[in-house]
Amino acid sequence: MDILTVHLFNALLYASVLFLIAGGLSLIYGVMRIVNLAHGNLFAIGAFTTASAVGVWFAGSSSAWLFLLVPIGAVAAAAIGAVVEPTLLRRFYRRPEEYQLLVTFGLLMLLEDLLRFLWGPYPISASVLFEKVGSLHVGEFIYPRYNLLVIATGVLAALFLWAFVYRTKFGVVLRATSQDMRRASALGVNVNLVYVEAFTIGCFMAGLGGAIIAPSQPAVLGMGVDALVLSFIVVVIGGLGSLEGALVGAFIVGVIREIGISLFPEMELAVLYVIAAGVLFVRPAGLFGRTA
Amino acid sequence: MTSAPAAPETRSPLRIVLWAAAIAVVLAVLPWVLDPYQSILIAYGLVMAIAVLGFNLLLGYSGLLSFGHSAYFGVGAYAVAFMVKYLRVESMELFILGAVAASALVTALFGYVCVRYTRIFFSILTLALSQVLWSLAFKFFWVTGGTDGLRVPTPKLLGVGMAEGDDKIRFLTHGYYYYVLAVFIACVAVMWVVVHSPFGKALQAIRDNETRARFVGLRVRAYRFVAFLLSGVFTGIAGALWVPLNGLTTPDILYWPFSGEIVFMAVLGGFRNFTGPIVGAVVFNYLKTYAIGFTVYWQALLGITLMVLVLVLPTGIVGTARLLWARARRRTS
Question: Which among A280, A283, A287, A290 is the top mutation candidate for probing chain B, defined by the most B β-carbons within 10 Å of its own β-carbon?
Fold first, then answer.
């Protein structure tokens, strides 16, 4: 029974991080109809920024204040988003999808090397926070407390996002723009402002995903590209552009991956892809998607 | 998809054949003029041109953007490597046959799923499926060699192996180069016939207006499936030709950023033209080689190039050249 609890925690841990990445990707697609291939790199930027803030700039300090540094990665990713959307991506909303994918692919290559330029080729770790919170006993197993913090962050982020999108005035404007940009614009919504804000929030989420895992696993080059492909599976299962879909998809992927790792480690990724393809086969727009 | 109407192909078939023959002669003379390194670069470019030519049957002629062509390239390459490792085959002709069979099988399977979708879903699905193969090549290291990859020695061309005492560079630049060139010419000819056949015209009709194409009675999904199959097999042949040149196949060629490079090449040359992908593949190959030699941040350099390209020259090199040519002619007449 205890082993099941540990597996469940692991699945939830994975799902929390994936939800943050894929939720951001889905939010951006839902509002602007653009798939950002560089989204995984924003996740990596979050991880690298937090890791170097905790592990390099303030290394040696061991006070609990270090926890306040964790969100800095999310802020960095959001800042990049706020710059990139109006200067680069906005020109592409009216152009065919191949150009949108290509420009974000170019951005991916650029950001990947920006990480290499700023932080060098070696992994950076912020494990001091991970060790600080210690671990707890689940029956006969020892489980790190930090992972529970990550799960809590994921759940809180999902709740905040839900409240934000469905219970605030800005959420109404956001959904209106997503459903019919022209009409929202005609009714006096500043669509360009909504676009910047939505893109920034999406990047903030990806950055937060990177920031909260930085203490438990080192930030390495290439993590963004891997994360992107996994979050694609999430949005394919859940439905591109749907936040509920991202949540359910992240949970499904988290559980399947945990089962896969313990039962057939070689096939773990392949099983995920096959399931994603299977969902698309039955429901082309994903579980919660709107047919485009 | 919105697009500028393609320039009508008014040139006579004779002129096209003459032009093609002239270019073929130039390509055939190159290894005698250039130093071996340059010839090998050209050979790489021609191999990639076959892959991008296949890719462009989907993007340019069917309006489907595949972000998973690394899969078919990799299947071709790994088919060759497996034939070497497990069947002790040495003949290049058998390699190509094997690669065609393997890539046709995989493409048929993937295509059956993928052609049900268009636009962004098609792109994501092709990407996701290609990553299945990558993860398998990566994880089943006792079969595929994992990240170490599989080595492939120089093959026998038309039953003739590398001569005793001959060095590999000479073999690649004078024997293998012509083999690649011959396959390249054959592939270009086949693709030319395909896109100018009623089948090719039907694909373009579907691309431009799916609903009307259906009204006319075209079986849209069947046409897309055949296009997908042909496209994947072309890319598989390129993969098979690429391995002996590289001497090694690794999972990198199955990883999705490689698919991105294939898309890059098509856009660089201009995917609205028949010749665009060929020019794009050769130029990209030079661009990447020199960018890597120039700076460790070559990826950023290529990324910026790509962004500038889609912003400023969305019709690619060939499209822009044609535009300038047409303008110059209008001014003189």
Answer: A280
Asked whether the beta carbons of residue A240 and residue B128 sit closer than 8 angstroms, the reply is no
Which two three-digit tokens encode residue B121?
């879903």
B151: DSSP letter: E
Angstrom distance (rounded) from CA A23 to CA A157: 10
- Size (chain B), residues: 333
Q: How far apart are CA A116 and CA B187, in angstroms?
A: 40
Q: Is residue B10 part of a domain?
A: no
Segment B106-117, tens digit of pLDDT? 999 888 878 777
Does B17 map to a domain?
no
- Cα(A47)–Cα(A44) distance, integer angstroms: 5
Closest CB to A274 among B3, B132, B305: B132
Q: Give the whole-angstrom CA distance, residue B82 versus residue A102.
A: 33
pLDDT band of residue A139 (cuts 50, 70, 90) is confident
Supply the pLDDT for residue B81: 86
Q: A267–B119: do the CB atoms touch at under 8 Å? A: no
Mutation to test the B interface, candidates A37, A101, A234, A240, most B Cβ within 10 Å: A101
* pLDDT value, residue B11: 62
Q: What is the DSSP string of A59-73?
A: TT--SGGGGGGTTHH
In a domain, B245, yes or no: yes
CB spacing of B65 vs A101 below 8 angstroms:
yes
**DSSP 3-state assignment of A98?**
helix
C-alpha separations of B80 from A129, A215, B92, B146, B190 in Å: 49, 44, 9, 16, 23
- Chain A CB contacts of B307 below 8 Å: 88, 103, 106-107, 110
Q: Which residue has the higher pLDDT, B48 or A236?
A: B48
B3-20: average pLDDT: 65
A-to-B residue pairs, Cβ atoms closer than 8 angstroms: 133
The yes/no answer to whether this complex scores an ipTM above 0.85 is no
Average pLDDT value over all residues in chain B: 82
Q: Residue B121 and residue A240: Cβ atoms within 8 Å?
A: yes
Identify each DSSP E strand in chain B by its residue range.
150-151, 248-249
What is the value of pTM for the model shown? 0.84
Distances (CA, A) of B226 to A112, B200, B221, B266: 36, 11, 9, 20
For B180, the domain range is 30-332
Chain A residues whose beta carbon lies within 8 Å of the beta carbon of residue B130: none
CB B67 within 8 A of CB B259: yes
Give the pLDDT confidence of A85-110 residue by residue, as tens digits.
888 888 888 888 778 888 898 898 89
CB atoms A102 and B267 under 8 Å: yes
- A212 CB-near residues (< 8 Å, 6+ apart): A17, A20, A50, A70, A149, A150, A153
Is residue B211 situated within a structural domain?
Answer: yes
* Residue B127 burial by Cβ neighbours in a 10 Å radius (0-12, 13-18, 19+): buried
- Which of A225, A240, A285 lies closest to B257 in CB terms? A225
**Alpha helix ranges (H) inside chain A:** 2-32, 39-52, 72-87, 97-119, 127-132, 145-167, 169-179, 181-186, 191-213, 223-238, 243-263, 268-282
* A13, two tokens: 């841990």
CA distance A246 to A231: 9
Residue contact B299–A270, C-beta within 8 A = no
Write the CATH number for B226.
1.10.3470
Query: Distance between CA B176 and CA B173 in Å, rounded?
Result: 6
